[in-house]
Amino acid sequence: MMTLFGDPAVWLPLVFAGLMGLSILIYVVLDGFDLGIGVLFPFASEAEKDRMIASIGPFWDANETWLVLAIGLLLVAFPVAHGVILTALYLPVAIMLIGLILRGVAFEFRAKAPLRRKSSWNTAFFVGSLMTSLSQGFMLGLYIMGLSYTPATVAFAALTALCLTAGYGFIGATWLIVKTDEALQRKAVRWAKRGLAGVIGGLVAVSAASPLVSPRIFEKWFSVPEILLLAPLPIVSGALVILLWIALRHLPDPADRWRHVPFATAIALFSLAFAGLAYSFYPYVVPERLTLYEAASAPESLFIILIGTVFVLPAILGYTALAYSVFRGKASELRYD
Question: What is residue 172's predicted lDDT score, i.e. its pLDDT?
């Protein structure tokens, strides 16, 4: 049965690489905006913090499902790569997990704690969000640099950590534009305008560094006819940045007609950046060391896992879509009683 679609040793690793990439992209977008809201916490008043929490209350826990799915797919489909990547990224992964735990505990406890202790839990929520964002950005930078630790690669990873954190803050601000109104929405527009610079800086840094660290990636982007075929990618990205700036200049508008444009455009921009990275590193799952075909599990194992994924993935997509549909509209007061 596995041979109906050709050689399973070729198409099954490719399918799982696509599923893993999709999971990572959805995680970056969905958990990215609620991490960004945590990063923006110090710039908000106490009342605004409650409204910000209300805007992510129904979603934040489910958003992290996509991270679990991505890591699970990496483990079962590419176990050799899982060992290499997590060994190289052991410290930032540990920091990320501590940040996620701190953030989750603070989210729940801030609503139950006495008023005098609420500010401490707000601080913990910010610190947990910042730890998670910075560690994920550091991991991205180190992955692009080939998972090697040198002063140059660590410096680049630190830069991507700052840029990804700014990017999360930006997409968090665009989410607040959708979910809030009045003073908080106006403040979110200002946050988004400032965060856009970090997004642009991160895109430029990653786009410039990726071809420089690998002659293979340089050849994939700048040889002919590839450079002509790929030209729409940076052109469309530049157009999306311009659209973002125009939309933010029109916000807030009395009819609230532009409120969805920044968030939707940010998703498109993140997706294009992710597509560029995927193209750059294919077919490697560990940069310049292991291809996804070399790191993949046996085709028989992958086929069995694929059968389970066919049922699990639609279920996750379904309840995610349902949650966002049920809790659409402006955020109201978040209550626990």
Answer: 92
Phi, psi of 286 (to 5 degrees): -115, 115
Rounded Cα distance between 134 and 313, Å, is 28
Q: What is the pLDDT of residue 131?
A: 94
d(CA 173, CA 219) in angstroms, rounded, equals 37
Distances from the Cα of 233 to the Cα of 28, 45, 198, angstroms = 20, 40, 20
Q: Which residues of the chain have pLDDT under 50?
A: 1-2
Give backbone dihedrals phi and psi of 298, rounded to 5 degrees, phi first: -60, 145
Whether 98 is covered by a domain: the verdict is yes
pLDDT for the residue numbered 1: 46
Residue 129 is predicted with a pLDDT of: 93
Residue 171: what pLDDT?
92
Sign of the CA dihedral running 64, 278, 267, 36: positive
Q: Which residue bears the tokens 């991270």?
A: 67
Residue 145 domain flag: yes
Please check whether residue 185 is in contact with residue 51, taking contact to mean a CB–CB distance below 8 angstroms: no
Q: What is 14-69 written as a DSSP string? A: HHHHHHHHHHHHHHHHHHHHHHHHHHTGGGS-HHHHHHHHHHHTTTHHHHTHHHHH
Q: How many domains does the chain have?
A: 1
Burial 207-221 (b: 16+ CB within 10 A, else e): bebbbebbeebeebb
What pLDDT score does 5 carry? Answer: 60
What is the residue whose two structure tokens read 């560690």? 135
The C-alpha R_g of the chain, in whole angstroms, comes to 21
Per the structure, the complete domain to which residue 292 belongs is given by 14-326
